[in-house]
Amino acid sequence: MSRDRANWDDRKLSLMLDLVAKQKQLCHWGEKGPTSIGWTNIYRSFNDSTKLGYSKKQIQNKFNELKRLYFNWRDGCKHTGLGRDPETGEVAVDPVWYAAVHGESYEPAGDKYKRPPFCEQLFSLFGHTPRDRGELYSAGGHGTDQTKS
After folding, report:
1. What burial class does residue 115 get, using C-beta atoms within 10 Å of its C-beta: 0-12 exposed, 13-18 middle, 19+ buried?
2. Total count of domains within the chain
3. Which residue range forms the structural domain that includes residue 21?
4. Is residue 99 part of a domain?
5. Staple 29 to which of 7, 24, 95, 111, CB 3.0 to 4.6 Å?
6. Per-residue pLDDT tens digits for 106-135
7. Over the range 6-45, which residues count as b (16 or more CB within 10 Å of their CB) and which as e?
8. In Å, how far are 15, 30, 57, 58, 69 from 20, measured between CA atoms?
């Protein structure tokens, strides 16, 4: 199956995101996502659970696609000055205003700022801001020595 195109449904996506969240809890997480150890664990656990034989690259590509969709949606809600529809959670904009400001039709923006699937799971992984992603712990060794000799 690894040479074919991966087919993703809601059950597979949810499982993959649960496995990613587990690796984050186990501290197999870098600046942008799971570490190489984390990806190996996700790949093995996913294929053990589904028996599909997806490659590590196929799983990474789908995760990166979901991450891109999440950040486009989040940034569209925050940084464009546009509002959010409380019923759908998607970015709401007047098509005439969008065309005047951006010089393009609203339709491409509608897809770009669409609420991603599994938004709650993605929020738990990425949060709104770096502060929402958790505290940074250090073993020490940063800064100058404050003790007197």
Report:
1. middle
2. 1
3. 10-128
4. yes
5. 24
6. 554 556 667 788 888 888 888 755 554 555
7. bebeeebbeebbebbeebbeeebbeeebbeeebbebbbeb
8. 9, 12, 14, 14, 17
